[in-house]
Amino acid sequence: MPVTRISLLAGKSPDYLAAVSDSLDRALVECFAVPERDRFVLIHQHQPEEMIFDRTYRGGPRSDDFIVFHITTGKPRSDETKRAFYRGLVDRLAEAPGIRPQDVMVVIANSTFEDWSFASGISAAAPAEDSNG
């Protein structure tokens, strides 16, 4: 049930954005134990003056193709799972749409099931019979 906010510089094509989203989805399903069809992605394209980043801090060099994935998840993952996900994500992004691993930053934030409502103002932690109706 992760929700991912993706931030990148403006100007990418719809096909590029779809490839980013598809690569993220595959990595989440294959490496992060996210179910199929559990896909919630928000893409934010920024003007150059709205996306300020160090081009060499703990990696890089970063180019104008720098992209940030901020993933909010309701289930903690082990360090091993996170490492596999980071590697799986950059591998898929390198294939499509062709993003260099040095240009990929990932931030994972955990929350609890009680912090979520998927629809109708009902807590995700509510018993199933409360959420049907």
CATH class descriptor:
Alpha Beta
Radius of gyration: 16 Å
CATH architecture descriptor text: 2-Layer Sandwich
Overall pLDDT level: 93
User: Main beta sheet: strand number and arrangement?
Assistant: 4 strands, mixed
Backbone structural class: alpha/beta
How much of the sequence lies in strands comes to 15-25%
- Poorly predicted runs are none
The tally of domains stands at 1
Helix content: 25-40%
Number of helices: 3
Report on the structure:
The chain is an alpha/beta fold and 133 residues long. It is built from 3 helices and 4 strands. β1, α1 and β2 form a beta-alpha-beta unit.
What is the element layout, followed by pairings?
Layout: E1 3-9, H1 14-31, E2 41-46, E3 67-73, H2 79-95, E4 104-110, H3 128-131
Parallel strand pairs: 1-2, 3-4
Antiparallel strand pairs: 1-3
Features:
20% strand; Macrophage Migration Inhibitory Factor; alpha/beta
Brief synopsis:
This protein is α/β, with parallel strands linked by helices and 133 residues long. It contains three helices and four strands; from the N terminus they run βαββαβα.
